Structure formats: structure tokens, C-alpha cells
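From: lab user (bench 3)
To: helpdesk
Subject: output format question, protein + glutamic acid

Hello, I'm new to running complex predictions and I'm not sure whether the block I got back is the full result or only part of it. Here's what I submitted:
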Amino acid sequence: MIKDISNLQVKLQALLQTQQTLDNQGKIADYIPALAKVSANHIGVCVATIDGKIAGAGDHQVAFSIQSISKVFGLVMAMNRIGEDLWQRVNMEPSGQPFNSIIQLEWEKGIPRNPVINAGALLIADVLASHFSASKLAFLSFMRKLSGDESVYIDNNVYQSELSHGNRNAAMAYLMKSFGNIEAEIPDVLSQYFTQCSIAMSCEQLAKSLLFLANKGIDPRTKNVICSPKDAHRVNAILSTSGMYDQSGEFAFSIGLPAKSGVGGGIVAIVPNYGVICTWSPLLNKFGNSVVGTNLVASLAEKLGLSIYH
Ligand code: GLU
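Helpdesk reply: Thanks, we reran it on our side. This is the complete output you should expect:
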């Protein structure tokens, strides 16, 4: 691995230029109306390294809706809270289905395939809602602590928009409850889940927040233990096999980094023992992954020799 970060800032700026000249490919997520209002032209990239360097370009300090990227943080909180019991209630296999598919959940008796598809994240939201007295606040505090930034906030417009267009997520939660795999009341589970998805953060804040996953569970800036090395390994493994929706296989095949995307257009990619890449550009491909973001992560991974499979 080269990990050459000399002139990283310059490299990022040059990379953004190449992407800005591309035709606008992809489509903004409009099934959550508040997301459809975001300008398609945003483009940002940030790299944070475990030895304390930060390089960013474009809109890397503009907050956007983190959406499914929140699933990574929810998973860590749930693992910390209930330990091995979690794995009785959710599996760790790729789903081979779209992120919001309900069909598999019926066959598999209300046990989600993994924690980063919607069904799995709803299950995690149930764990948090059932095991924390003020679970939404606990989640927001966790995000603020990890980013080292008290300005991280819940975007109430996005929250309300999700709540009023959340029938499919509600259906999954009720189905899991019918199998006895959800403890809390469904409105509380949905409220927890949509709160998590509605958090607004920038590429820079997200990249800093996930450094612990590149550093065996320890936040390199504060030296706080965020999770055990074993759990950091497990989260990275799940992100490698399932983090990029139903394109995770191709992402591993061509790029080779644990990563998670969200329908707000963000992508985070973990480079173990090195750092975190975060990109944001709202236009999504048919799998729900940012078109430009995927290109940016691919270019950086190749230029810097970051694949974990080398
Ligand atoms: N809040 C979104 C949903 O539940 C998250 C989807 C995503 O980013 O994958 O549909």
C-alpha cells in the first residue's frame, strides 16, 4: 500500500475537476420528498487520516442528510449495548436484494439478513429505543462526540418527510414484530430510525467520526475506546460485504474497501490503519449509490493503493 498523502489536497481538487466535467448522470432520491429539494450539483470529498491529517475539497464542509450512513453508528451503539445477543436477532450475510426489500423478511421469519439493510437497521433502532432511556438524544450525542462537533443536528424537515413517507419501513417493522423480533412499539422504532437517518453532517465531520473503524475501535484523536477491536473488525466486514446496497460485490471487486452509502448521496469508505474517505454528491445510480462519489472513491483508492485486498 502506497498511502502517499503528499499533496493530498491538490490531488482531491484535481479529482473533483474531472468529476465536474462529467455529464450529470444518475437521479436524486425523490421517494423522500425533502431529499429531492437538495441541489444535484453539490460535490465534496474529504480524507481524514488516523495520524491527524485532514484534506478536503469542494463542498466537504456542507452538511447533508447522512441517511443510511447512520446505520454504521447505530450498529456500533447496539453492539456496545447488548453484545453477542444482537446476533441472535440479525444476521451478517449479504442480502442480494434492494435495501428496502421486504420479501426476504417473510421467508426468513423476521430475522434481517444484515444490520445495514433497512430491516436490519430498524431492528437496531428497536435495540436502541428499548435499551436507552433517551435513545434519540443518545444517538445525537454519540454523533457529536465522535465528530468532536456540537453543531451536528437532526434535520427536522427530512425527519418529517421520512415519517410521512415511511410506509414501507413501517411494514417491515410490523412484520418483524409479528415474528417477535421487535420489542418496542412500532412508532417508537420508526421515530428512532428516522431520527438517525435525518442527521445532517458534512464529509469532514463524517470522515473524522469514523476514524475509530480504521484504528481498531479507538478514536485516534481522543484515544477514547469506541468499540472493541473485534467489533471494529466485524463492522468493517459487514460494510465490505453489504455496505453498498446491492452493488457491494462489484464495489469490493473493483475498489476493495469497507464502505457505506446513503440515499442522501454520501459515501464513507474505511481504509484500515490509514483513515477514512467521505464523498458527497446527490445523484444516485440504480442501486442507490452516488455516481460521482463512487467514481471519487474508486480513483482515490487506485491512486493511493488503498484496497484491503492487495
Ligand atoms: N431513510 C432511508 C430509508 O429508510 C434510508 C435509506 C438509505 O439511505 O439507504 O429509506
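A quick orientation on your result: The beta strands are 44-49, 54-58, 64-65, 153-154, 199-201, 259-261, 266-271, 275-280. Let us know if anything else is unclear.
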